Amino acid sequence: YLSTIPEGPPDAILGIAESFKSCTDPNKVNVCVGAYRDSSGKPWILPSVRKAEERMLKDDTVNKEYAPIAGDGRYVELALRFAYGNEMDLGSVAGVQSLSGTGACRIGGHFFARFAPKPKGLDRLPIYIPNPTWGNHIQIFKECGLDVQRYRYYDSKTNALDYDGLIADLKEAPDGSVILLHSCAHNPTGCDPTLQQWKDISDLIKEKSHHVFFDSAYQGFASGDAEADAAALRLFVKEGHNIVLAQSFAKNFGLYGERTGTLSVVCNTPEERSAVMSQLKLIIRPMYSSPPIHGSSIVKTVLEDEELTKEYYANCEEMADRIGSMRRRLVEVLKEVGSTHDWSHVTSQIGMFAFTGMSSDMCDELTSKYSIFLTRDGRISLAGLNEGNIEYVAKAIHDVTDG
Ligand code: LMR
Fold first, then answer.
1. Pocket residue to mutate for ligand 1, from 129, 134, 216, 382, most atoms within 8 A of Cβ
2. 259: which residues sit within 8 A by CB, 6+ positions away?
3. Per the database record, which ranges form the Aminotransferase class I/classII large domain (predicted)?
4. Which of 214, 263, 359, 362 can bridge 104 by disulfide, Cβ–Cβ 3.0-4.6 Å?
């Protein structure tokens, strides 16, 4: 049977990252994957993370035993504090450690598919995800058995949030659907609702008895301040939603390969919490038994220590600042190299990406002619830019857009 198996398509993001690796052009540029690079284009281990690892190495109580199915409880507690804030009573929040954001989305997707009631007349629970969204969302929720639907999110004519479209589509969705929201720094558009719009979205979701699934992959990257970036999800909790939250520490702690995250469900009582915890464990155990412990120990060591936490916040701000300055520089240099195109949307966007508005043909040309690797939706990871390559990239963009 093996000879009958067809070749599968490469992944829309990680497949391009693989092509970048095998490209031999000395001028090649990787602005594909959302992974931070320092000003010389190198991956960066946060100094606070490095210090935490040094402490762990010297700590003879650290061992390599299995974590419990739900992960390291102390880590989960600190991680949830980071997301929900100091005011939050965590006594009714069911939280488990996850394999970063993807793993959290997967556990949450299975949880919804198993337990949330299907809207009347439907045989599968619909999940509405933004259009566009992080490409992997689609496959993850399909694999969970959910019916993946889209809501309008971005208007490519105005290069801004399609707020009216979003509201119309959430109204149109059958009552009791799951609504996936990016809690900040929307990937790929870099466009978030305002706080007032979040409040109105929250009211509408309540009216429609929809379920809220927040994906938080960029807390700290939108503004540089992790507290400020949690405003939307904290607002929903305050408004009484039983949110489900997928939390990733890949970007904001630079722990990409450590697969460190959480999945949590805001319940109404400690009894509900206990039942939900037991079910989350039943989802996890046959999937991968228990999570890896190195990344979670790092996050725990940092967040448990006041000084390391302070240093961590400064490290996170440093990354956000460098990305912000590359955002402004890209628009500046585009003008310098002669582009007359209006790029102002790039500077009004936030987070790790510039959603440029380039067509897939233009993206293909950037890759084939200039060895600049980006996703075919026109998304550029600003973290991949630095003073050494920004002019090369700007000239190439000018060539494929105005040339
Ligand atoms: C991205 O959007 O580039 C990242 O989240 C990496 C990934 O796993 O796709």
1. 134
2. 99, 100, 103, 250, 291, 292, 295
3. 27-397
4. 263
